[in-house]
Amino acid sequence: MPASLTPSTPYVDLDREAWTRLSASTPLPLTDADVDRLAGLGDPIDLAEVDAIYRPISRLLDLYVEATRGLHQASSTFLREDIVATPFVIGVAGSVAVGKSTTARLLRELLARWPATPRVQLVTTDGFLYPNAELERRGLMERKGFPESYDRRALLRFVSKIKAGRPEVRAPVYDHLTYDIVPGREIVVQRPDVLVVEGLNVLQPARPTAEGTSNLAVSDFFDFSIYVDARTPDVRQWYVDRFLSLRSTAFADPESYFHRFAALSDDEAVARAEHLWDTINAPNLEQNILPTRSRADLVLTKGRDHSVERVRLRKI
Ligand SMILES: Nc1ncnc2c1ncn2[C@@H]1O[C@H](COP(=O)(O)OP(=O)(O)O)[C@@H](O)[C@H]1O
Ligand SMILES: CC(C)(COP(=O)(O)O)[C@@H](O)C(=O)NCCC(=O)O
């Protein structure tokens, strides 16, 4: 029996090569141009990485979707009712700057090419952050991304409506440029085949109620979850590098909340990025995000060069 399949852990742990071999016959429907379009700022992902890592993930998810539909059919038969199938919901979690958005966009694109799941939508949880005015009122402007900076009840209601099979569910929208919620703008989710929900805290466990019982958590509504992982010093470096790139791109826009940082020297910009990382994003990673990693069905571990080195899949 291969070491990865010994029954001592509930996970299958595979190195890159072993993972890639699992879907040798699955076609890759994307091109170099598609990957360039989908890659996040500073993420050097290329077609070879998509082929090696994401093609097998999309095949695995296609199998899970099929199996979930079979289960749904079985419950419908048992209940003697024609229950509407609900979207297959995938959560994507991980640190700020780890590359979650690239992963989520690639999944959206790859899954939409499978005949069973042509309609795939993506929602990021930043839309459920409180607006800056509310964060200021609550003294949370330096805690953006921490669980308490989100309207967690609204996010839970949103995912719960999706899994109830509502034909139309709306989510608010966040803008990285203005660093705030966009008043009046919404994403409309219309019962897709697959919904990808991406965000720092999507694997947070339920909070206990005042009575000591437990509420539901967003992740209770996931059919599958992925944690994008990397060593913290590497993610810190990626955050700082991205901040330097943003300085000459997004921050150069006078509308940008960070416009004042566009004029910083290299050293000043590095110091500012390190300060933001060390005071907000690192404590959030350590206290809230990393502790949820073991809850994920699939963990992708990246090396310093951003490529995935290991893949860990829960056995059931
Ligand atoms: N200040 C910013 N201005 C413009 N875009 C940003 C800013 N911060 C982050 N982004 C973009 O927002 C997206 C999400 O970033 P983040 O939450 O760090 O997650 P991840 O890097 O894991 O995808 C990325 O595509 C990133 O490039
Ligand atoms: C908007 C974010 C909280 C991410 O939100 P998510 O979509 O993961 O819920 C994060 O990208 C962010 O801007 N954090 C604040 C600290 C900083 O500027 O780095």
TrEMBL record:
Catalytic activity, reaction form: (R)-pantothenate + ATP = (R)-4'-phosphopantothenate + ADP + H(+)
First-listed, main subcellular location of the protein, grouped into a coarse class: cytoplasm
Lineage: Bacteria, Bacillati, Actinomycetota, Actinomycetes, Micrococcales
Enzyme Commission code: 2.7.1.33
Record carries keyword Ligase: no
Origin species: Cellulomonas rhizosphaerae
Positions bound to ATP: 94-101
Family: Belongs to the prokaryotic pantothenate kinase family.
A single GO BP: coenzyme A biosynthetic process
Major enzyme class: transferase
Designated gene of the protein: coaA
Entry's Gene Ontology cellular component terms: cytoplasm
Protein name as catalogued: Pantothenate kinase
Single Gene Ontology MF annotation: ATP binding
Subcellular location: Cytoplasm
